[in-house]
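Q: What residues go here?
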């Protein structure tokens, strides 16, 4: 059975703040996600990270354990953890290309207090774009 986990965290240091840090994260994530049969979508905005991860329970749990130990994250919060019938994300890792515009379209100011329902709305806006 597939699961979808949505989490948010605070980015530490330059994580997600520079093109180089984002490229490094995407490169490693793509390799790891392909290996673990995970698909995901990630957003960096104003010092916060939001990611949606889909895959088998054991693989999703292994990723979350790695993220909890990752010094680039602080205050990781699981917003949603639920079984799903099918994936909504089809790539190993997808970057939200314009987080400020996406947040604006969804009527959100930041990722600091985003809810699972708001993340689902962000997915809808991303899919419609």
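A:
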């Amino acid at each position: 059975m597939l699961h979808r986990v949505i989490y948010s965290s605070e980015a530490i240091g330059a994580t997600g703040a520079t093109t180089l840090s984002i490229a490094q994260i995407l490169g490693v994530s793509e390799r790891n996600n392909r290996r673990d049969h995970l698909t995901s979508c990630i957003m960096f905005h104003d010092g916060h990270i939001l990611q949606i991860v889909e895959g088998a329970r054991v693989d999703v749990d292994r990723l979350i354990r790695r993220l909890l130990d990752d010094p680039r994250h602080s205050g990781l919060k699981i917003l949603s953890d639920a079984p799903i019938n099918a994936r909504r994300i089809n790539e190993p890792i997808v970057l939200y290309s314009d987080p400020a515009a996406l947040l604006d379209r969804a009527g959100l100011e930041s990722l600091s207090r985003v809810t699972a329902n708001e993340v689902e709305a962000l997915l809808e806006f991303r899919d419609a774009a």
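A: Context that may help when evaluating the design: Helices lie at 19-36, 57-69, 99-105, 116-128. The first helix runs from residue 19 to 36.
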